[in-house]
Specification:
This protein is of the alpha+beta class. It has 2 domains: 2-120, Enolase-like, domain 1 (2-Layer Sandwich); 123-211, no CATH class. It has helices at 10-18, 40-53, 96-115, 149-167, 171-179, 185-194, 199-211, and strands at residues 2-3, 28-30, 35-37, 56-65, 68-77, 82-90. The protein starts with a strand and ends in a 7-residue tail after the last helix.
């Protein structure tokens, strides 16, 4: 993720906007899985008004990538501050239709991730049904960038330790490194964002936390 030198105006504005962003309406049907999902227009409708209310606009550019496209999503604040993230999507077919679908897919998921809109899969919903409200962790794009530089490095180190523990079969140590280390909510959100590529680990950690409701609130 890239960012402007400062995001001291953008960060609190994004926090306020996300407090007003609701889940995107699942009004489209996937013909292959016969399941409902939120299409691009639903995601845009969910985020546009709350973002604009707090002085934030979003821009999405498309770049060429090997066998597909790279969709860059930028959140631009009225102060001039910004954060951006790029999502690379392979094209299912090497034709106009395939690239068009990849662009739409990239725009939808890129905007959804940057604005913290709840996703269709379990990985996008970090709160467990049985956990109290104070234990909810909502992945927020920009959480890592909102931390101080030293805290960003610490978040990356913690995430790396969690992955290492997991790879060594030390699942409970990975759990402790996140839930029992006395991290602030801001730090937890930053670590959670770093762990985004490791969805299986995140899902398992959430499941472990659900099974241990007496653990410290996240």
């Amino acid at each position: 993720m890239n960012r402007s030198e400062s995001i001291k105006e953008l960060a609190p504005a994004l926090v306020r906007a996300q407090g007003e962003i609701k889940a995107a309406l699942k009004d489209s049907t996937n013909p292959h899985f016969r399941s409902k999902y939120a299409d691009l227009s639903s995601v845009v409708e969910a985020v546009k008004a709350p973002l604009l209310k707090h002085g934030i606009a979003f821009l999405q550019g498309v770049h060429d990538a090997e066998n597909g496209v790279a969709v860059e999503t930028v959140l631009l604040h009225s102060s001039g501050e910004w954060i951006s993230s790029t999502l690379r999507i392979p094209a299912g077919k090497q034709d106009a239709q395939g690239y068009g679908s990849a662009i739409t897919y990239g725009r939808r998921y890129g905007l959804q991730a940057m604005c913290g809109v709840p996703a269709e899969d379990d990985d996008g919903n970090a709160a467990t049904a049985s956990a109290p409200t104070t234990s909810r962790i909502t992945p927020v794009a920009g959480s890592l960038a909102a931390l101080e530089p030293k805290e960003q490095e610490q978040a990356k180190e913690i995430a790396g330790a969690i992955v290492d523990h997991w790879g060594n079969g030390e699942e409970f140590k990975a759990y402790e490194a996140f839930y029992d280390a006395g991290l602030t909510n801001e730090m937890k959100l930053g670590v959670w964002e770093v762990l985004q590529p490791h969805s299986k680990i995140r899902n398992k950690l959430k499941a472990m936390h659900k099974e241990q409701p007496t653990q410290k609130a996240a």
